[in-house]
Design brief:
There is one protein chain. The protein has about 350 residues and is α+β, with helices and mostly antiparallel strands. It has nine helices and nine strands. The strands form three sheets. It has a five-stranded mixed β-sheet with strand order 4-6-7-9-8, covered by helices on one side. The radius of gyration is 37 Å and the shape is rod-shaped. The two termini are about 45 Å apart. The relative contact order is 0.07.
Length: about 350
C-alpha cells in the first residue's frame, strides 16, 4: 500500500511539473520520462497535496486493517465485520472526500481518483472506498496468516530447543551421580584406583561441561568420552563383568554428532551390571561407522529377576532411554532408528544415526 501511494504521489508531481509529462487519452495513460522538470513550485505544491490525499487513503486502509479486520472479523466473526464495513463506508467516505475536495488539486483530471465535480456524496466516491477495502482485505488477511504461521514456527522451534535443553539437563546429573558413587566407594576403601577414577571423571566433566550443551560435537570427542566412562566403570566392576568393547578408530573430526547420545545405552548396560553385582554380567558394546551411518549395539545379560520387575513396571527402562528417544526425535527426526528391549537372556539396544 505504501509503495502504491508513493508511486501515485510521484505521478501527480510529474503531471504538474511539466505539461507533457503525462497525457490522458480516452483509454490510455501515457507517461513520459524524457522531459525535465520546469515548474518546481508546482512540483512541491502538488507533492504536499498529493501526500495529504495519500495519507487520507492510508487512514482508510489502516482503520480497515487495525479495527475492522483485527477486531470485528478476528473477534466477532464475518457477519459483524460486514455490518461494520457497511457503516464504515457510509461514515468514512464523505468525511475523507470532503477533506480531499478542499485541496485545489482535487479538480485535476489526472487525479486518478474521484474528483469534486459532483460533490462528496456521489456514488463514485463510495465505489472508490469500497474498492480500496475490497482489494486490500485479502492482502491483509494473507499477510496476517503468514505472520501467524511464522510466529507459530518460531514458537515451535523455541519449544523444541527448550525441551532439548531440559532433556540434556536430565541426563547429565544422572550420569554424574553414578560416577561420583564409584569414586566414593573407592575412596572409602582407600583403593589405589581412586586417582585413576578421578582422572577419568575429570575428562568426563570437561567434556560434559564445555561440550555437553553444544548442538553438535565431533564424533571423535564423543567416542573419547565413552572410553573414559568405560575405563571408569571397569575399575569398579573388574571382578563381576565380562566386557567386550569395539569402538571405531577415527583419524579425523569430520563427523559431527549431538553430544551425550551414545553414552545413554552404554550407561544403562552398566547400571544393570551394578544392579546384578552378585552375579557375573556380560556387556557387549559394538560401534561401527560406515560412511555417515553410525550403528551402536549395546547389550548386557538379562536376569530372570529383571524380567519379572519389568512386567510389573514399565518404568524399569529408566528415564535415560526415554529421554534418548525424545532427543533423537528432536535432533534426528527422520534419520535415526532406536530399538531396545529383552532379547532372550540379554537386554539389547540398537541405535543407528545418519551423521552430519
Amino acid at each position: 500500500m505504501l509503495i502504491a501511494l508513493g508511486a501515485w504521489v510521484i505521478l501527480m508531481c510529474l503531471a504538474n511539473s511539466h505539461d507533457e509529462a503525462l497525457t490522458l487519452t480516452p483509454n490510455t495513460l501515457v507517461i513520459s520520462l524524457d522531459v525535465g522538470v520546469t515548474e518546481f513550485k508546482a512540483l512541491i505544491w502538488t507533492g504536499i497535496q498529493s501526500s495529504i490525499i495519500a495519507a487520507l487513503i492510508w487512514v482508510i486502509y489502516w482503520l480497515n486493517k487495525r479495527f475492522l479486520i483485527a477486531k470485528l472479523l478476528g473477534q466477532f466473526g464475518l457477519f459483524n465485520y460486514l455490518c461494520g464495513t457497511f457503516v464504515y463506508l457510509l461514515i468514512c467516505t464523505p468525511i475523507v472526500f470532503s477533506l480531499i475536495n478542499v485541496l485545489p488539486i482535487s479538480g485535476q483530471t489526472l487525479l486518478l481518483i474521484p474528483s469534486n465535480a459532483q460533490g462528496i456524496f456521489q456514488p463514485q466516491n463510495y465505489v472508490f472506498t469500497f474498492s480500496l477495502i475490497a482489494l486490500s482485505t485479502p492482502i491483509i488477511l494473507l499477510c496476517r496468516h503468514h505472520r501467524t504461521e511464522r510466529k507459530l514456527f518460531e514458537l515451535e522451534q523455541q519449544n523444541k530447543q527448550a525441551e532439548l535443553t531440559l532433556l540434556q539437563q536430565q541426563i547429565n546429573p544422572h550420569f554424574l551421580f553414578n560416577s561420583l558413587n564409584n569414586i566414593y566407594g573407592k575412596v572409602l576403601c582407600q583403593s589405589d584406583d581412586a586417582p585413576n577414577l578421578i582422572e577419568h571423571l575429570s575428562s568426563l566433566l570437561q567434556h560434559s561441561v564445555y561440550k555437553g550443551h553444544k548442538d553438535f560435537v565431533s564424533l571423535e570427542d564423543e567416542l573419547n568420552y565413552i572410553k573414559h566412562f568405560i575405563e571408569l566403570q571397569k575399575v569398579r566392576l573388574s571382578g563381576n563383568i565380562n566386557l567386550s568393547v569395539n569402538l571405531p578408530r577415527l583419524n579425523t573430526s569430520a563427523h559431527q554428532i549431538a553430544p551425550l547420545l551414545l553414552i545413554v545405552p552404554i550407561e544403562n548396560a552398566f547400571k544393570h551390571a551394578i544392579a546384578n553385582s552378585l552375579e557375573r554380567c556380560n556387556i557387549r558394546i559394538d560401534c561401527q561407522l560406515e560412511g555417515n551411518r553410525l550403528a551402536l549395539i549395546c547389550e548386557n545379560s538379562f536376569s530372570d529377576q529383571m524380567a519379572k520387575d519389568m512386567k510389573q513396571s514399565e518404568e524399569h527402562t529408566g528415564v535415560g532411554l526415554q529421554n534418548l528417544s525424545k532427543r533423537l526425535s528432536l535432533i534426528y527426526a527422520n534419520t535415526h532408528q532406536l530399538n531396545y528391549g529383552p532379547e532372550g537372556d540379554h537386554w539389547q539396544c540398537n541405535l543407528e544415526i545418519e551423521l552430519t
